[in-house]
Amino acid sequence: MRVLRFDLERPELEYYFHELYQAFDPGVKNVLTGKADGVLVEKTEGTQVVLTLTWEGGKALTRTYQFNSSVEPLENSLYKGFLYDFLSEYFEKRLQWGTLTGIKPVKMVQKYYKQGRTTTQIRNRFRDYYRVSNDRTDLLLQISKTQASLIPSEQVSEANRLISIYVGIPLCPSKCDYCSFVSTIVDKKGENLQRYLDHLLIEIKKTGEVLKASNLQIDTLYIGGGTPTVLSADQLEQLMSVLEGSFNLSQLREYTLEAGRAETINQEKLEVAKNHKVDRICLNPQSMNPQTLLSVGRPWEAGLLEQQVALIKSIGFKTLNMDLIAGLGNETPADFLRSLEAVLALDPQNITIHNLSIKKGSRLKDQNGIVVNEGYGEDFYQSVKKRLAAEGFDPYYLYRLKYTRGNSENVGYAKRGHEGIYNILMMAECQSTLGIGAGATGNLYDPVTDNISKVFTVKDVKTYNERFEEIVEKKCGAYRILSMNKK
Fold first, then answer.
1. What is an example of a GO molecular function annotated in this UniProt entry (predicted)?
2. Does 76 share its domain with 202?
């Protein structure tokens, strides 16, 4: 692994320089001291920023950038802009996302609109200040427009009392190599699953009691994982019945159940979900290429996925979402596009395109470290977007992650009327969410400050079970404050 040392006059810039440099030259280790194969120097001389990059036996470059001396102190984002221009020249390429490294760029657009900026002003801001390409800026504007009708307006008196609920089932039948979620493998007798469910039901009831005296209304409900459909039909019935008994779900706009792995669902489980008014099912193949799935430790059985899709459709859920991941295993662009065609042939209403992100906690990261490969190229991503548009899918949801193949983005596409509302609200951070269960983070939204405060919980099932009473009391205390404020 190549090592690059940062010699920074302002050490606080390390994080920003690291994030942006990785986007240009992924996989390089950055250090602040010691021996290195290359050196990136940043210093300020009067009203000029001087940047120098030198690699042993390689290219060297020095550039000077002028700034307005009235700006004191110089904003970190301006340094990022100078660094971006410098690295663009050094590597002779530009990035579609410019200097942006955050995960919620659509939220930035929404914030600018709230401030009263025009579309032209927003477009100029992304182009000139953040160096974002016209294509990605257009994508952000399109998604923001789509989301506008699905995000409750601040002018609507009921908006501030709308909340969502996330119920976490962080257990799986096995763990895929690329997965970074803290999930527990269900033991052969299912004892750890049953113990977790017993505690989860108590937390649901206690949380429901906290909300009883409030004026809060449940807007969306999402049961996620892990793989929630590791629950048996009887366990799923018990879970959904307790949710109905603990919360008023009569005004739900969306009820989602993740059924991520085809081998975990059957007709009985799906009928339980349908009877409890679940209207959105997520069935996530990740790839339709058997050799790819087997190479990343994900089970595959010929014809099973197609059989399960037919079963889901026969029961009559409103929306079927299917996920694909670009960059799994040794897939080529052609491999991925074959998967996309196979998924389109199954006629889901919602398709999410992820780009592989190697993160802490995944088996791939443990085996290989963080290795960020080049993406498939801009022509590939445009062809995916164009192919989905031809079938009536429009982008409605976008987020970005670190260490993503090709420094790209994850985009949800949907046919009109089938957008994932919960996903939109989570990225917009405009509504409180109660997180129930291990790994389920609560988001408490303050409309006055437009800020989110987090209610964290432990991620692993074992700790959740062992410290259950302490954990639930702490979470309910935070939700009690929210409830009192909404009476």
1. coproporphyrinogen dehydrogenase activity
2. no
Position 365 scores a pLDDT of 39
Q: How far apart are CA 229 and CA 226, in angstroms?
A: 9
Same domain, 465 and 333: yes
pLDDT score of 363: 45
Query: In degrees, to the nearest 5, what angle opens at C-alpha 402 toward C-alphas 397 and 408?
Result: 55
486 with 215: CB under 8 angstroms? yes
The number of folded domains in the chain is 3
Q: Tell me the per-residue pLDDT of 421-455, one tens digit each, with 9 for 90 and over.
A: 999 999 999 999 999 999 999 999 998 888 999 99
**Are 138 and 173 in the same domain?**
no
Burial 162-179 (b: 16+ CB within 10 A, else e): bbbbbbbbbbbeebbbbb
201, 121: one domain: no
Domain that includes residue 114, residue range: 105-148
Cβ density class 57-77: b for 16+ within 10 Å, e for less: eeeeeeeebebeeeeeebeee
The tokens describing 304, both together, are 């099973």
Q: What is the mean pLDDT of the segment spanning 261-287?
A: 97
Is the separation of the CB atoms in 344 and 384 below 8 Å? Answer: no
Radius of gyration, alpha carbons of the chain: 24
For residue range 165-209, list pLDDT tens digits in order: 999 999 999 877 777 567 788 888 999 999 999 999 999 999 999
Rounded mean pLDDT of 146-162?
A: 77
Tell me the whole-structure pTM to 2 decimals: 0.92
- Tokens 């009203």, located at residue: 47
Is the CB of residue 330 less than 8 Å from the CB of residue 295?
yes
Decide if 97 is inside a domain: no
The pairing of beta strand 432-436 with beta strand 410-414: unpaired
CA dihedral 349, 352, 353, 355 (to 10 degrees): -170
Whether residues 111 and 228 fall in one domain: no
Type of residue at 196: Y
